[in-house]
Structures are given as C-alpha cells and as structure tokens.
Request: fold
Amino acid sequence: MAKVDVVDMSINKVASLDLPESIFSCEVKPHLMHEVVVMQLASRRSGTHSAKTRSEVSFSGAKPWRQKGTGRARAGTKASPLWRTGGVAFGPKPRDYSYSIPKKKRRSALRSALSAKHADGAFRFFDSLSVPSGKTKDAVAFLQSLGVDRKVLLVHDSSVSAETLRAMKNIPFVRLLHVDGLNVYDVINARCILMPRTVVERVEEVLV
Reply:
C-alpha cells in the first residue's frame, strides 16, 4: 500500500493514510478509460435535434407548374428536398444516444483513472473538509492556500456539511461530486481532487 499524508484545513499534516494499490497504483488502461468516457458523453446528449421532412414542411401541396410544355424540369411539390425551402432528406430526428458497457469494465476504467491521477499528484486528502461560515470567500481563501485555481473536483459524502457545500458550489472552477457518483470523466477532467478520508474508505468498499 502507498502511504499519503492526511492534512487539516490549515494544510498541516495530521495523519497518514494507506491507499490500496489495486485502486490507486494499478495498471493504467487508456483504451478502457476512453471507451467509458465516450459512453458517458454519449449518455449526456439530449438528442432533441430535429429537421422537418418533406411531409412536415408547410406548403399547399399544389403542383408548382404543369408537367409539360414549360421547358422546365418536372416538379410535383415545393416540399421536395431538391428545393431551397423544401424538407430535409434523411435529416436528424430526436433519439436516445445512451448505451451501457459492462460494470466490470466501468470499475476497471475508474481504477485506472484514479491511479493515473494519483501518479500525477492530483489528490489532496483531508482529515475533514469544513467551511463553517458557509461563505464563498472563505472557500476561495482555502483553495488559494492549496495553490489551486482550475478544475477542482471535491468528492464528498455525508461527513461534509451543507455549509461547506454551499461555500464551494458558487466557485466556477469547483465541481461537487458525491462519492456514489464518482466516474471516469470527472476524475480525468480534474486537475486537483479533494477527498476526505471517509470518502477514500467508501471508494475502497466499492472498488476493492
């Protein structure tokens, strides 16, 4: 197991924590992470795009001109996709883009993401995370003391108070994520990941 420092809100070391190698020091599988991220982003698509077909555009349906004798090409309706104001041939229609992949692959990809971020030194482990005032300025001051100002992921559980979450959620570069919703995309997209030690215990329960 790898030992890491556990700090308090003043960034003073208060304890050490053993991280299981099967989660935070396992083999990184980029192809598996890519597969899961593509699945996640596909599932987030709203799929509400729509284009009108020739049967849906609003026209009278009258033949623009007679079939013969005009010298022009034959035309039966102004709704034809060949016309500028006509319908769209094979245009997009509302659909569901979501799909799923096996649970074992998702868990393996998440372990790879956590291991990659741990190798990059992106994790900060805390004895407890608390901003008692509930004020955003106090949360910003805390993050400045950490030296982070971009793409911060705060993984929380019930031990993190509502005041702390309220102070953090108004900061544009901070994303709040409950431990039960931990996923590959949010992990690899973050530059700094803040975790209370109780969250690490929950992650071990799920992934070991």
Observations:
- Residues 82 and 198 are 63 Å apart (CA to CA).
- The chain has a mean pLDDT of 93.
- Residues 103-119 form the longest helix (17 residues).
- DSSP finds seven helices and six strands in the chain.
